[in-house]
Design a protein that fits this description.
The complex is a heterodimer of chains A (about 260) and B (about 300).
Chain A (H helix, E strand, L loop, with lengths): L3 E14 L2 E14 L3 E5 L6 H8 L7 E6 L4 H6 L3 E4 L11 H12 L3 H14 L15 H13 L5 E5 L7 H18 L2 E6 L2 H7 L2 E6 L4 E7 L14 H16 L5
Parallel strand pairs in A: 3-7, 3-8, 5-6, 6-7
Antiparallel strand pairs in A: 1-2, 1-4, 8-9
Chain B lengths: L5 H36 L9 H5 L3 H7 L18 H13 L9 H32 L1 H14 L4 H14 L5 H24 L4 H9 L4 H36 L8 H10 L3 H32 L6
The chains are: A alpha/beta (about 260), B mainly alpha (about 300).
Chain lengths: ~260, ~300
């Protein structure tokens, strides 16, 4: 078995706020293997985004151990080990789509020729050919989010962290992007961490589903998906898919006993 | 792009028309006493006959009782309020009928004031941007500079300007620079305020994105904060340049400057030539409008090229 790319052991994180301490993560332990597609699902406040930010080194856990590619998350961030996709596309309005995708490459000091190659390559991966010279406002929300995925892919990190990237999009666009994301994952063999609050999205995309619950934020269930890696959209009507979705729903409900 | 937008012009023209109308009507009562005095000296029968009696009456009453003087209120040599056409004639004479290098030319005086304005504007803008960068990146500066910047604007510039001129004069600095410093003093403030807001406009997500790239501070400045602040900068520049012009004019008033809009206003006042004062006033207003228009033009061009023109 390959060593895990991301390991978390007994992770705890408490935010000090004006209303007192908030226990965002409690005793979170998880292994993510190379090439996994791991979804984090749970209601708001369950710590799924916080955990993703811990992996990215954007938050520091209060206690516990976490390693990314055998390094601390901060070292992994400085080694540019991952690409991060946020809830909003967050493209710079003053840069073209090509210019936005070039942003991380400029910061990391790639040569002009290499930048042009990589931009063309990732724009092809997210199916945005021909939009390089357009400005963000000229694109739909779904296309903007695809551009932000291309931006995260441009420097070819092994890990892709996505924080509810399709949360603001309508269901038809979301289905289409989910399908494209699976194809992209198959082509690039990235390790993906994906935060969502949609059960069908989590089940459809993931090899591993991490069910979380709030107050304090913790893992209530980890489901290894038996679905094949190659998944057509209509797999969502299969009995197996519905079974997994049931288990996810049960996990979410059991974490809600106090409500 | 150069199409004239009538919907934009009509309201503006209406306002200008109303102002001209009120101005034109106001000329009669404002100048009625002077016109009546002159008419009396020219053997016209004016009621009441005694200047003392007239003094006690309002201009409107005099005009109503002596309709003959109404036309005269528009053609006095030294009116209390010049009529629009008198100001227009004065401006025409001092702009188009004399060489721009002549000391009688309003263009010459405009250039004197404008050069101080532009130098002061450049100094003020540079200072404002540098202070804003310091405030955004340095906690100590954030706590210490901003209160002083605000305090600096509460001191009446009319009190401060003579002190600056006299003190700089004492150490041998005269001419353009003292006026420019007053301009800079007025124009740095809107730039500081606007740029602090602009440089802080990127949200937490955009800053986090740069952290995921492990970008350093200069990269964060040049690639995110500075471009994000451009719309704020242009708004500040428009306020700053008109403030700089006011500063240059104020700088000309206390020193007995011999040239510039401020000097013309003073000369007109002291030698009883209201048309000169008014022409200088309008010259300053037109100059300010042109400067703001020029910055608006550069703003549109720049933001369009940056893909932010639609906003």
């Amino acid at each position: 078995m390959t060593p895990a790319t991301i390991t978390a052991r007994n992770l705890d994180l408490t935010f000090e706020t004006n209303d007192g301490p908030v226990h965002a993560l409690k005793d979170v332990s998880l292994d993510i293997n190379k090439g996994d597609f791991v979804s984090f699902i749970g209601p708001s406040g369950c710590g799924k985004t916080t955990f993703l930010r811990c992996i990215a080194g954007l938050e520091q856990p209060t206690s516990g151990d976490i390693s990314v590619n055998g390094m601390t998350p901060d070292a992994a961030r400085m080694a540019r080990a991952y690409g991060y996709v946020f809830q909003a596309a967050g493209l710079y309005p003053w840069r073209t789509i090509g210019g936005n995708i070039r942003l991380p490459l400029e910061i990391m000091g790639f040569s002009k020729a290499e930048m042009a190659d990589r931009v063309a390559h990732v724009m092809d991966l997210v199916d945005l050919n021909g939009f390089e010279k357009k400005f963000p406002w000229q694109l739909s929300g779904g296309m903007q989010q695809r551009a932000s995925i291309a931006r995260a892919l441009a420097f070819d990190a092994d890990i892709l962290l996505m924080d509810e990237p399709f949360g603001a999009l309508d269901e038809i666009v979301r289905d289409h992007l989910n399908e494209q994301l699976l194809k992209l994952w198959a082509r690039t063999e990235k390790t993906i961490g994906f935060v969502t609050h949609s059960i069908p999205e989590a089940v459809y995309l993931s090899t591993k589903i991490v069910v979380m619950s709030p107050r304090p934020g913790r893992i209530t269930d980890i489901i290894e998906s038996p679905l094949p890696r190659d998944r057509p959209l209509n797999i969502r009507d299969s009995a197996e898919f519905i079974n997994i979705a049931h288990r996810v729903r049960d996990g979410l409900r059991s974490g809600h006993v106090d409500d | 792009m150069w199409m004239i937008d009538l919907r934009g012009i009509i309201p503006a023209a209406t306002v200008v028309g109303c102002i001209l109308l009120i101005w034109t009507l106001a000329v009669i009562p404002m100048n009625a006493h002077l016109a009546a005095d002159m008419a009396a000296r020219g053997d016209v029968v004016v009621t009441p006959h005694s200047p003392q009696d007239r003094k006690a009456m309002t201009g409107v009453t005099i005009a109503v009782k002596n309709p003959v003087i109404i036309a005269m209120t528009y053609s006095l040599d030294r009116p209390r309020l010049p009529s629009p056409h008198q100001v227009a004639v004065e401006m025409h004479n001092t702009i188009f009928t004399v060489a721009p290098t002549s000391r009688r030319s309003l263009v010459h005086h405009a250039w004197v004031t404008l050069s101080a304005t532009l130098l002061g504007f450049v100094i003020g803008t540079t200072l404002g941007v540098l202070l804003a960068v310091g405030i955004v990146y340095n906690r100590t500066m954030d706590k210490s500079v901003m209160p002083w910047a605000i305090t600096s604007q509460t001191i009446p510039i009319l009190a401060l300007a003579p002190m600056i001129i006299v003190m700089l004069g004492a150490i041998g600095i005269q001419g353009l620079l003292p006026k420019s410093i007053i301009s800079a003093y007025l124009s740095f403030f809107p730039v500081v305020v606007g740029m602090v807001k602009g440089l802080r406009s990127p949200d937490a997500m955009q800053l986090d994105l740069l952290r995921t790239y492990n970008a350093n501070a200069p990269q964060g400045f040049w690639k995110l904060r500075l471009p994000a602040s451009m719309p704020y900068l242009f708004t500040s520049l428009k306020i700053g340049i008109s403030a700089a012009l006011v500063g240059a004019i104020v700088g000309e008033l206390p020193t007995g400057a011999r040239a510039g809009f401020g000097a013309r206003m003073l000369v007109g006042d002291q030698y009883g030539q209201p048309m000169v004062t008014w022409a200088a006033l309008f010259g300053a207003a037109i100059t300010a409008a042109l400067l703001v228009g020029l910055i608006s033009f550069i703003e549109r061009r720049t933001l369009n090229r940056m893909g932010m023109g639609a906003a």
